[in-house]
């Protein structure tokens, strides 16, 4: 059977670990060649070997997504190394910012940093990839937002603001890029099992005087399915949005959260 993304060219930001790495491997498993972008070279090189074991080409390109020159280099290197096209862009780079912190206690620098990585770091890859997608009259953009972009999120003002901004960016770019056969959608994971979730549980527990297990259980009990989202759950949804299975979906918010937001 033909794989859904056979010989497509993808860029994934935030690729080094966790959810980003799972997305890269899922795209490669469906036949895509992948440009891997994140700050640290070492984890990217490890991931590249995993992509190559699947018989796909991998480009390692350390990138600060808030740096426009670095993003331009990422796009140019992808075109040069992987065949001139860019068919898929997955914006998975992001930071969590302050937790359990009321808005009046958030440091301005921390707020600015979250918006710079999560919003500017999504805007810049879109800006520089879209001309290629428009010229080829084909493209799939998937922005990793979060369920905190679907409702208010107490004590997480910086993070929630950035994820709401991604919804607006996604819908607006969908309108602008749609006439060129470019789909732009947002994926909203709930809390995802892994190092970031563990760190978040520890941080919240420390602020509350709880144990990390208590914080984790609170999350689970808020989910209709009573199970935490995995990186593989997110990766499978990205493959759907990056494939022609979703060819008539654009400007949408797709939620994968075990029923946290119902």
Provide key terms for this protein.
alpha/beta, 2 domains
List the helices and strands and how they pair.
Layout: E1 9-13, H1 18-29, E2 33-37, H2 41-53, E3 58-60, H3 68-82, E4 88-91, H4 108-136, E5 139-144, H5 157-177, E6 182-189, H6 195-208, H7 212-221, H8 231-242, E7 253-256
Parallel strand pairs: 1-2, 1-4, 2-3, 4-5, 5-6, 6-7
The CATH topology name of the largest domain reads: Rossmann fold
What does the average pLDDT come to?
96
CATH hierarchy, class of the largest domain: Alpha Beta
Helix percentage: 40-55%
Rg from alpha-carbon coordinates: 18 Å
For the record, the CATH architecture of the largest domain stands as 3-Layer(aba) Sandwich
What assembly state would you assign to the polypeptide chains in this entry? single chain
Structural summary, described in words:
The structure is a single chain. The chain is α/β, with parallel strands linked by helices and 262 residues long. The chain folds into two domains: 9-190 and 230-249, 3-Layer(aba) Sandwich (Rossmann fold), CATH 3.40.50; 193-228, no CATH class. 48% of the residues lie in helices and 13% in strands. The chain contains eight helices and seven strands, in the order βαβαβαβαβαβαααβ. The protein has helices spanning 18-29, 41-53, 68-82, 108-136, 157-177, 195-208, 212-221, 231-242, and strands at residues 9-13, 33-37, 58-60, 88-91, 139-144, 182-189, 253-256. Helix 1 packs parallel to helix 2, helix 1 (18-29) crosses helix 8 and helix 4 (108-136) runs parallel beside helix 5.
